[in-house]
Predict the structure.
Amino acid sequence: MAKNSGDIILRDRMEFDLDGSGNRDTVYGRIDLSSYISVPQKKGLAIKQVFFQVREQNSGKLPNTGVWDWMVADELADANGSQGALKVVATTRAYENLSDVGIASPDVLCMREYISQTSPTDDGGGGATATVGTSYAYTDRFYGPMDLHPEGYTLVSDLLIGIAADTWLANTSATLEVDILIIAEEVKVTQERMNDMLQQAQDL
């Protein structure tokens, strides 16, 4: 349910593939907002909240729920341990590589980072043959529109959803899905502000 009577709820779903090493080069999906944005009519979309949910398509481990398994290594862990990361961002600027994107990056509305790490434990004998178990650590960092743009962020163009991954071993050669839910409000944009935003877009 929308928070206010004038709020709009937007939903979309993207699919992306990981390679045999659990990697995914930066890729973008585009959310078409042309029904809500018009430069001649000075119509924009004020973004209030953005939510991401990563899902497993045709999940082998959790087939009844499709819940994404965040453990990057499980039985693939070795004596050196392993770590992986997956990043999802909402932005109006198509960065070539999401490794360049942080909370100070221009035109990024929100960002979510999933980080999973395994560390081997052993019986004190040392070496790979001493490994007898694995410990897991998981971090989920989210920076929302209110964190990155407390002054508010108004869109006058389509929204891009960027995804990248490093060594997410639990989903090698697999297809994942990310669901996106956006809460926004249609607003009027002054001509001066519209000119500023359009100029920023041309400078990309």
